[in-house]
Structure formats: structure tokens, C-alpha cells
Amino acid sequence: MSSGEDTKTPKTPAGGDLDEQALFFHRYPRPGKLEIQATKPLGNQRDLALAYSPGVAAPCLAIRDDPSMAAEYTARANLVAVVSNGSAVLGLGNIGPLASKPVMEGKAVLFKKFAGIDVFDIEIDAPEISRMVDVISALEPTFGGINLEDIKAPECFEVERQLRAKMDIPVFHDDQHGTAIIVAAAILNGLELAGKDIAKAKIVTSGAGAAALACLNLLVELGARRENIWVHDLEGLVYEGREVLMDEWKSIYAQKSDNRVLADSIANADVFLGLSAAGVLKPELLVQMADKPLIMALANPNPEIMPSLARAARPDAMICTGRSDFPNQVNNVLCFPYIFRGALDCGARTINEEMKMAAVRAIAGLAREEPSDVAARAYSEETPIFGPDYLIPSPFDQRLILRIAPAVAKAAADSGVAARPITDFDAYLDQLNRFVFRSGFIMKPIFTLAKAAEKKRVIFSEGEDERVLRAAQVLLEEGTALPILIGRPQIIESRLKRYGLRIRPETDFEVINPESDRRFKDYVDQYLSLVGRLGVIPEAARTIVRTNYTVIGAIALKRGEADALICGLEGRYSRHLRDIAQIIGKRPGALDFSAMSLLISQHGATFFTDTFVTFNPTSEEIAQKTIMAAEEIKRFGITPRAALVSHSNFGSRESESASKMRRAMEFVRELAPDLEADGEMHGESAISQVLRKRVMPSTTLHEDANLLVFPNLDAANITFGVVKSMIDGLHVGPILLGAALPAHILSPSVTSRGVVNMAALAVVEASHPV
Ligand SMILES: NC(=O)C1=CN([C@@H]2O[C@H](COP(=O)(O)OP(=O)(O)OC[C@H]3O[C@@H](n4cnc5c(N)ncnc54)[C@H](OP(=O)(O)O)[C@@H]3O)[C@@H](O)[C@H]2O)C=CC1
Ligand SMILES: CC(=O)C(=O)O
Ligand SMILES: [Mg+2]
Predict the structure, then answer these.
(1) 92 annotated to a ligand binding site
(2) ipTM over 0.95
(3) 606: helix, coil or strand?
(4) Which domain CATH number covers 123?
(5) Is the pTM of this model over 0.80?
């Protein structure tokens, strides 16, 4: 069998040649960018009988009797065809269907990555309209939607018109409508920033093809005036009476004018809209444009003018391209995954004007919200804030799906084209949130409990950190916690402004200023009372209380000025743990602290312990770590099932660590007889009932383990790290167990969503202590 995989992958080409790197990227480790994955197991005879003959006959007959059942028994409702005949591939022209395949595979990947939509890319050898319509319309039984891509004008207009009339599923020409939606959003925002009215704006295009004309049609719907629009193509200006290269779609914009070329029309233009070819806009023309012009050079891969040239000619311009390597990426990727998400989720029969307008408003509105930290990282340096260099959201903004899909689904229902209208938008948003934040599903019970609880104060040691500031805003907005931030108020204030966050110190949340807090003397006294006999002299205590923010947070928690502590975004775990141990201490009866890490993946939730604290725990300590972990897991609404893992499988080895785990298991049975657990066993046995039962038919672990308890820190920490990296899992934690009060030491790689997750857990611990 050939998987096409190249086992001898050469080294990635060094140096900056993007073409060479792109060829390498597409070729290795296996050709192309896609594969198909089964969503049902096919591991044994029974699976085969269900998935294939004879079982498969049942869904076939159900669909024959009621075609709507295809949405229940097949992948159709989430399956889109990306179809091209290769006649206008990016700005590369008519390179044919086969050469268009990398672009179509790319669109498929974007659908999947950004909106979870499955795609078959379909490149068809069909230059003529009638053949395209025949081939594409015959695909209706397979797909929930059709995304036409890179089909040239004017044929694309007729193809789309005929398909929309023939087919009962959404047909959407991405280069027309996806581009128009995002261009309209950017123009609305750009004109607002320039203080201009769309009804008076002069718009000059280079391009009179699929993308340009669809953009203009939508802009006219939004208030632009035909008389202010000047369209140019290979022949120059589209004017009344022109006969060469004209068609009924272009002639709508024909001007009564003696102008003939772009240079004649560009004077006083407020917007240049380039959807044509590389390099057609010369810098010297830009000086004629109006004040604060909007220059949209959107041809791909190379724009009508490079941003550096445009900026040099017009420092006051707002500049957009279709590329990801410059600010203001105006590209239909910001639209097509999400408009289809909304359309598929409500069973829309078409994508109509109302749904497109809803998408425009959602995208334009999102740019004015605070940027997310993921979007900020995608721009790599400065956090973008709504303004000339940030007219529209980044393609990596995870909120695109959360804003566009519900707006589109609502517009579909309101305009009567939704076969399965969404009735509970809160539940729908929850579902989208779970797609965006993989932790969402597992964390839901924690957030529900945290929001229902009396408000708890969570103190953050690294209160100046961007991730904490973003998390604080989310916690306040969602009503999950009352944050207290340790940090210098002027730094916090200026960073909040820089990141475009709305919350403000003292008005919205409390700040402890380590440089001048009035409680400083009390804190030092309290600290000395705890550590004075551990070799810390008063002078050192004063310095520590001024400079060690985890110490400040722990003292505030101990004094009852906060209900939970979050630290660890900087510095070593052991240092934070030492401070928590000295100031907060262990909960009564705890032999030691323990750390549990939750790994979320497509396999669900798996908890690992002890990943950060005790190097070589005793049997008693391991038993206690298991029981503390199990108690914590119940907070997630999950029934804990523990496996004490080892190199020994149910007594197969007699080493010291194997018998340590066996003894630990005996303690667990004694101390927590109701806990479903077993051990010692191999890691594979823990997660495979078949393997486990083969060796130990009487095992007391009836389902696969979701809590893996390790014999020592090396095993736990290394296994967790390797598994997390290999399966690209999401880490929630580490969750500190055994402290007298809720306190968690995160890791420096945590994201702001990770901080929010752990703060919510800490609130639940504070409201429901064990
Ligand atoms: N950023 C984005 O999201 C998107 C960008 N695009 C880009 O827009 C461009 C056009 O795509 P699309 O509309 O689908 O293709 P079409 O083939 O439908 O249209 C191309 C248009 O550009 C005109 N044109 C070509 N070369 C020149 C030139 N040198 N000077 C002036 N006009 C020229 C053509 O003129 P004529 O009519 O005379 O043949 C035609 O009107 C491509 O570069 C594509 O990559 C497209 C979609 C989305
Ligand atoms: C982005 C896109 O669809 C194009 O350039 O054709
Ligand atoms: Mg395209």
C-alpha cells in the first residue's frame, strides 16, 4: 500500500526563498495538504457489519423514505464541494483545473481549520458554462453546499445564476461574494475612520471581473452611488459606448466620460479597489487621490502595488492587501468558512442578500472590539487596535466564527430560507465556543458552577502580564470572578490601553501596588511570623514582600483579602510552590502537595498526576495523590477512573517501584473503597479494556482510565509532555492539590484562555471546599 508518504524527508530548505519553501511544504512529508479520516471505528467484524454490508442498508432505506435523513445518517450536512475549472486562479489567470488543485486543497484546509467543515476539492475540466452547470448540479446528492472558486468572469455569473436556480443547497461563488463581504466590511470601517460618507465616496477599481463587480454590487447596496464608481479592466475605463471586452455585468458601471485609463480617473478617489493583477497601480498616481485614501491592492499573490511603495507615496493612506504578510489582510478567508458554518447549521437552502449583509456587519463590528490574544500573536509584535492598520480582524481571530455564523444563521431564519432554524442561540454559541476553545466542553461544568457561585476574588501575582489582563477582562465580562491584580497601576493602565482592553484599574478591579500598598507593614509582619524561623531576617522579609509577587498574593489569600491565588506565569514552579507552602501551607491531613494536569484531546479528557511536585512519592503519598485527584475530577462532572501505572502489569515484575504501586493500590482500596481504580498496570492496559481484561479478567477498572497515576515525577512529567506534544493536546493546569486554600501555579506557556480556565476552577474550589 502506498500512503504517498516520503519516509526520507529531506531537510527544510534554509534561507528566505518563499517559493522553494512552499514547494517543500506541499511535497513533504507526503504530497498535498489533505487526507480523509474515518469517524467511526472499523476494528472488528461487528464494526464492519454495521458500517458496510449488511448494516449499511438500514440508513440507505431510511434516506430513500425520507431524504432529510441524509443529514442524520451521512456526513452530507457538513460537507462542502470547493469546485473550480481553473479559469481565474488567484491572479495567475487561466492555468487550468489541474494546476488549480493546490489552491482548492488550500481552501479545503481553511474550511476545516477555521470552521470544522469537511470539503472535497473538485477540479473539473469544464471550460464551458453548460458543462460546468451539468457537472456541478449533478453533485447535489453528495454535498450540503457548493463553494465555486476561481472561475473567471463573465462565465462565473451565468454559472452561479443557473446553479442557484437548479439546486436546493447553498451555491456561493467565493471570489464574488466572499470577497465582496470582506471588502465591504473593510470599506465601511476605512471610510468611518477617514470621516467620509459612502454615498459621496469616489471608488476607482482596477478589475472588472468576478471579484470587482460583486464588490461594487454590494457597495451599491450599502449606499455607494453608481455615478461615483469608475471601473477599469484590460481595456481601460468601462465607458458608455465601449464595445471591446464588454459584457452585461460590466456595462452596469459604464461611465459617460472621455476618460480612458486609470490615470484619467484616479484624481480625488477615496478608494482604490484593485482586483486585477500585480503592479498595475503606479505610485505616481496615488498623489492624486483624496485625503486619507483607502488603497485596497487585493490581487493575489502579488498586489496591484506593494504596501511599501504605496506608503512612501501616500503616508496618510490606509493600505490593504490580500496577503498574510502585511497588516489589513482583506481576503475572503475571513468570510467563506463562517458564512457556510452558519448556513449549514440552520440547513439554509441558499445564501441570500440578508445573510451576506449580516456577515458584513459582523466582520466590521468585530474589528472594533478588543483584539484577541491569538489574533495579537498572529500579528507577532504590537497588538493591533482598530485603526488605519487594523480595519478588519485577523484571519486568526477565533471570534470570527462566534460572530459571523450566528448572525448568518439568524438572517437565514428571519428571511425564511432555513430548513432547520436555530431556536436556542445560547446553545448554538456554546457549541461554537466548544469548537473554538477545545477546553470548552470539559470546562463547561466548572464555568457553570463558578458563575452560579457568590462572586469570589481571585488574586493574580503576575498582574502586569498581558495574558492576565486579557483574562481579567473575560472574567469580569462573563461574571466568573472578581480579579485582583498585583502590579504597578501605571503599567497595568498603559498595557490595558495598548492591548485595547476596556477594563480599568480601581474602577473595574482592585490593584495591589507592590511599590506603595498601605498594607505593606502588615504583610511584612505576617510574612515574618511565618518564615522568621526559617532563616529569613526582617530586612530580607521587607525586600521579599516588595519584590516577590507570589508572596504578596499568598499573604493576601492567607489574610482573607482574596479567595484564590493564581501565579506561575513567570519563573520556576518550585519557587512558587515554596512560597505557597510557607505561607498558605497544606490542607489538614495532606502528606504533600500534588499536581494534576488535564490533557484535552480528540480522545476526551485525561488527567495525569503527579506531574510537578513530588520526586519519588511513597505508597501512602501516591494513594493520597490518587484520592485528591479523584475528588478534583468530580468537580468537572466526570466520574474518576484511576489506573496506577507501572512498568509492571498486575504483578508481572517484582521491582521496588512495582511493589510501591501495588501497596499504593491497597491503600487506595482501603481509604477510598468507592473509587473505581486498579493497578499496578501498564500504560496500555490503563487505556485498553481489551488488553486489561486479557491479563486481569477480574480487574476493578471497568472502563478505560481517565486518571493516570505515576510512580514518580519523572514518569508523570515526561509522559505528560510527550503525549501532549504528540497528540497536540490542550493542557489545563497544572492543578495544585493539597493546599490549605485554593492556589494554582500555572506554567509560563499558558494562554489567556488557560488563565481564565484555572481562575474559574479556583473560584469553584473557593465556593465548594472539599
Ligand atoms: N483578496 C481576495 O480575497 C481576493 C483577491 N482576488 C484577486 O483578484 C484578482 C481577480 O480575480 P477574479 O475577479 O476572480 O478574476 P477574473 O478573471 O474574473 O477578473 C479579472 C479582472 O481583472 C482584469 N485585469 C486583468 N489584468 C489586468 C490588468 N493588467 N489591468 C487591469 N485589469 C486587469 C480583467 O480584465 P478583463 O475583464 O478585461 O479581462 C478582469 O476584469 C486576482 O488577482 C485574484 O487573486 C480575487 C478574489 C478574492
Ligand atoms: C483569495 C482568493 O480567493 C483569490 O485570490 O482568488
Ligand atoms: Mg479565489
Answers:
(1) yes
(2) yes
(3) strand
(4) 3.40.50.10380
(5) no
